[in-house]
Write a structure and sequence with these properties.
The complex is a heterodimer of chains A (442) and B (521). The longest helix of chain A has 31 residues. In chain A, the strands form three sheets. Chain A has a six-stranded antiparallel β-sheet with strand order 12-11-10-13-14-15. Chain A has a five-stranded antiparallel β-sheet with strand order 7-6-5-8-9, with helices on one face. Chain A is an alpha+beta fold and 442 residues long. Chain A is globular, with a radius of gyration of 24 Å. In chain B, a hairpin with a 2-residue loop joins strand 2 and strand 3. Chain B has a two-stranded antiparallel sheet with strand order 2-3. The radius of gyration of chain B is 34 Å and the shape is extended. Chain B is 58% helix and 2% strand. Classes of the chains: A alpha+beta (442), B mainly alpha (521). The interface between A and B is large, with 59 and 53 residues. Strand 12 of chain A pairs antiparallel with strand 1 of chain B.
């Protein structure tokens, strides 16, 4: 296994788990440690003896302890020991590991069958019952959009000035109506608008832009027949016709590459958390975004270790400019990131973002990887930027970007960040062939 | 866009049937929208304009970048060491930081850039001192961007060449903190000038600022400072007066010391091999200006206290010269006097205050010898004075005493263990470490199901974990077998303390493994 201890700790669900995991990384509390190319395992003496195993392709941990944390401290401890490269010897897996691996392999092949089924289902003509269900839902969504348009027009008629005083329920009511109409995507957009009034001095412009884009979405949905099929797919997904991952694998484009997991950002959402992981293909130079949601602190489905390069297949959600993806397969062939492909200038990057927008105008976030940019801190105005060799600069999202500044020493670095059209959120930076994760918890 | 926003803010009901435009390419698109639905038209125009603006973002142009950091002269530490140091900096086991950094410095290494923000955020003075040599060029460069990190810059810029060009302006206009730093800096290079600056500004400063600035005179303190310090003895503020008195005490030829000697001299006389000690009955009027507590001289107890105070503020070497007696003989003579305990307490305090090692040794031997305490005050002194003197006596002397205490201390004396070990020399010798561990294990072996206390050993573990030398680590990490069937809170807590002790030793083991140097001390 070639994760560094930092990358292992980035998998921890929270800071206290990370600290507890470090404590478990003590060979004295372990027996029967071993690893092969697919898994690492060991028995950990806690309040009882726990059997801990980790699958190295997906860093999936299975432990017999009763913890609700995922991965638990024992799993993190085992990964940390495996990361030091000397404590966990190569060995043949014992029965309790081999049987778990066999079970996981069976689940995987069942998944593949399901993908094949989905693919077949997509090709087959829908049954009568399916058609009926779809028609029913189409009607629901259409009614929902009618109500949405009335609401939007009301807002325009009465003006935005009064919205600052509206309670959250004002937005929540409309969002709930969209949920009832099975237009979850639109409900999410309305919920995020609730935070805009009063948040920044130019909030009316920001809110107007969001309302306008939402109106364009409902407009496009109604006129779906006039759209290019790929863009129509986007519009339907954005509205609420979600796809399951096996459907994505079956219908979307799958790209095999060495993927750089450049960074991760977690945001609190209603009743849960949203995790965004940005990736970049070494050969394809394709940017990708893996979105995962956790409700009520349920563990995330996939363990993604930022800062590594991992070989695998990414399946993209179908659309006009696909960005969202998930791993349909990945190998235990991982290594730390040691080089970062990127745009040569900020102008070229902005051009690429504009090209994506031209194909799919509702994109809101973009992966920004740039070569040879210098972080700059303006002390007097307390503002952070990165600047390319032409002098063009993009502002960094608020906060002290001290590690970035320290790593650069005022010299150019290769940089990865998330661009939202206003500011850049740093994800990582490469200096002297070493990739440093920036941002949360790093 | 302004037009668009104004319309949206007031609402189409108020704005009337206007057709807002954006003055961009978007208008050619939105002109095709039906004019009869003003709200819909406004929304779609706004949506298109927002997408247009997002796609057409124009970056700001920034002038030249600041000067980058100079190339490093020292290599960075290894990745393994980086992981260890990150833990220590993030305040897990922060007390071990100075030890690790000292090893780093000895190995000729520096911190990697990644750790610098954490390092510069450190607040403990001991850790800051140990960080300065390992911050490297990058650390010095980085510290200029954050006012909270100025300590690194101030410390790095010693020597006249590095005095800020605008020193005088900083002194006139800076914050008290900056001015204090500047004063210390100037004191190191030009003590007279620093004193002149301080003297010129003296009257305008507030009391706590005066006290802080005055304390800077401790750098390069010399006879030339005496006149100014004497004036500070007349200050309105007690804390300023105390600071001045403490500084004057460090000038052996000062009039201040001479006055203290004049007050103490009548109290001791020596003739025919016998020392006579008297308690003072009066004080000169100037005594209170020198900080001598002179109230309630009618009270006998206070007069005894004054004896201790005066002897405690006279350099012991004075008695050696006056009576031509060596310290050991003098101590023996005091023992036979009328006020042995009081006089020896005063002398012990003086030996510590003036760091007189020649005097400290016989006094230490007196106060650390096993003796029966008759009063509560004596119990206190037997606890306090050996520890007060310990830093001024040879290491081996302290260790021999502490080992003896471990092996043979009476029950009363055991109470002192925690304090004894709380003052620990930076590192113990191997013999002492082995002795400590053997005694600790003997104590643990004596515990049983019914034991209800781990005192006083529980109080020693924290200090011992920091002071044991690396040669003792293996012995320290062998497991401790507490009686499994003992469930009292005290013994359970002792178990946790032993775990913490082992954790600390393990981290120190990592420090020694990761940063191998021949000898740090």
């Amino acid at each position: 296994m070639r994760l560094t201890s930092e990358q292992v700790l980035a998998l921890a669900p929270d800071a206290s788990s990370a600290a507890a995991g470090k404590k478990q990384a003590n060979p004295r509390v372990w027996r029967n440690l071993g690893q092969n190319e697919h898994a690492a395992w060991g028995e950990c003496q806690g309040s009882a003896v726990y059997q801990v195993r980790v699958e190295l392709e997906t860093f999936t941990v299975k432990c017999t302890c009763p913890s609700h944390k995922f991965p638990c401290k024992h799993g993190l401890g085992l990964l940390l020991l495996a990361a030091d490269g000397k404590t966990v010897p190569a060995a043949e897996p014992p029965e309790w590991v081999a049987s778990w691996l066999a079970k996981r392999a069976a689940t995987e092949s069942a998944k593949r069958e399901k993908v094949a089924e989905s693919a077949k289902a997509a090709d087959d003509a829908p049954t009568k019952e399916q058609l009926k269900r779809i028609e029913k839902r189409e009607n629901l969504v259409a009614h929902g959009l009618d109500a949405l348009d009335l609401w939007l027009s009301d807002l325009m008629r009465n003006g935005l000035a009064g919205l600052e005083g509206q309670p959250v329920t004002f937005w929540e009511r409309q969002a709930a109506q969209m949920v009832d109409s099975q237009a979850q995507g639109i409900a999410g957009r309305i919920r995020s608008m609730a935070e805009i009034p009063g948040s920044v001095p130019d909030w009316p412009a920001k809110l107007l832009g969001q309302l306008g884009r939402l109106a364009l979405l409902s407009h496009s949905y109604r006129r779906g027949d006039a759209l290019d099929p790929a863009l129509r797919e986007d519009v339907r997904q954005l509205t609420g016709w979600t796809l399951k991952e096996d459907e994505v694998t079956a219908r979307g484009e799958t790209v095999t590459d060495d993927w750089l997991l450049l960074g991760q950002h977690i945001e609190d959402e209603e009743r849960g958390k949203a995790q965004r992981t940005w990736l970049l293909g070494v050969q394809s130079l394709r940017p990708a975004l893996i979105l995962q949601f956790s409700f009520m602190n349920q563990p995330l489905k996939e363990m993604l270790a930022p800062g590594i390069r991992q070989h695998g297949d990414l399946s993209f959600w179908p659309g006009a400019a696909p960005l969202r993806a998930h791993f349909s397969a990945r190998s235990a062939d991982t290594a730390p990131i040691s080089a970062l492909p990127g745009h040569e200038s900020i102008e070229v990057f902005l051009g690429s973002a504009a090209a994506l927008l031209a194909r799919q105008p509702w994109h809101e976030r973009f992966l920004c990887s740039l070569r040879n940019v210098t972080p700059i801190y303006d002390i007097t105005r307390d503002r952070w930027h990165i600047r390319d060799s032409t002098g063009a600069a993009l502002p960094l999202r608020s906060g002290g970007h001290w590690r970035l500044l320290a790593i650069s020493g005022g010299a150019p670095v290769d940089f990865a960040g998330e661009w939202d059209g206003e500011t850049l959120l740093p994800l990582g930076a490469l200096a002297a062939n070493e990739y440093y994760l920036l941002g949360q918890g790093a | 866009m302004h037009d668009l926003l104004t319309t949206a803010l007031v609402g189409t009901a108020q704005a009337g049937a206007v057709s807002p435009t954006t003055d961009t390419e978007v208008d050619t698109l939105t002109e095709q929208l039906p004019a009869d639905d003003a709200e819909r038209r406004l929304l779609l125009t706004a949506g298109a304009a927002a997408m247009y603006a997002l796609a057409g973002y124009v970056p700001e142009m920034l002038a030249a970048t600041p000067e980058p950091a100079s190339a490093e002269t020292l290599p960075a530490c290894s990745p393994g060491t980086t992981v260890l140091l990150r833990d220590l900096l993030a305040n897990r086991q922060g007390v071990l930081l100075p030890e690790a950094l000292a090893r780093l410095q000895n190995a000729g290494l520096r911190l990697p850039p990644d750790l610098l923000p954490l390092a510069l955020d450190v607040r403990e003075p001991a850790s800051r001192g140990a960080l300065i040599p390992v911050l490297g060029e990058r650390g010095r460069w980085l510290s200029q961007f954050n006012p909270a990190w100025s300590w690194a810059r101030d410390a790095l810029t010693t020597g006249e060449a590095n005095m800020p060009a605008a020193a005088e302006t900083v002194w006139q206009e800076g914050t008290p903190g900056q001015r204090h730093e500047l004063l210390k800096l100037l004191r190191a290079t030009d003590p007279a000038k620093a004193r002149d600056w301080l003297q010129a500004a003296w009257k305008q400063e507030k009391a706590d600022v005066r006290r802080e600035f005055l304390s800077a005179l401790s750098i390069n303190l010399g006879p030339d400072d005496e006149a100014f310090l004497e004036t500070a003895l007349d200050d309105r503020s007690t804390t300023v007066r105390d600071t001045a008195a403490n500084l004057l005490m460090r000038l052996p030829t000062s009039a201040f010391i001479a006055r203290m000697i004049a007050r103490a001299d009548p109290l001791l006389s020596y003739a025919d091999g016998a020392l006579d000690v008297e308690i003072p009955s009066s004080l000169d009027p100037a005594a209170s200006r020198d900080g001598v507590p002179g109230d309630s001289l009618n009270d006998a107890g206070h007069r005894v206290g004054l004896l201790i105070y005066l002897l405690g503020h006279v350099p012991p070497v004075h008695w050696q010269e006056r009576f031509s007696l060596d310290p050991a003989a003098f101590v023996a003579a005091v023992e036979n006097s009328l006020w042995p305990l009081e006089a020896l307490e005063g002398l012990a305090r003086a030996a510590a205050l003036f760091d007189d090692q020649e005097w400290a040794l016989p006094l230490w031997r007196y106060w650390s010898a096993p003796r029966k305490a008759d009063t509560e005050r004596q119990v206190e002194l037997l606890g306090e004075l050996p520890l007060l003197l310990a830093p001024h006596v040879p290491h081996a002397e302290w260790e021999a005493w502490a080992l003896h205490m471990l092996a043979e201390a009476s029950d009363d004396q055991r109470e002192l263990y925690g304090d004894i070990f709380a003052w620990s020399p930076s590192q113990w010798s191997r013999d002492f470490g082995d002795g400590y561990l053997a005694a600790l294990r003997a104590f643990i072996a004596g515990l049983n199901k019914k034991s209800k206390s781990a005192e006083p050993w529980d109080d020693t573990l924290e200090s011992a974990a920091l002071a044991l030398p690396p040669e003792c680590f293996a012995a320290a990490l062998a497991s401790f077998d507490l009686p499994e069937d003992n469930t009292t809170w005290q013994i359970q807590n002792f178990r946790r303390q032993l775990d913490a002790f082992a954790d600390t030793i393990r981290v120190r083991q990592r420090i020694y493994d990761e940063i191998p140097v021949a000898d740090v001390r």
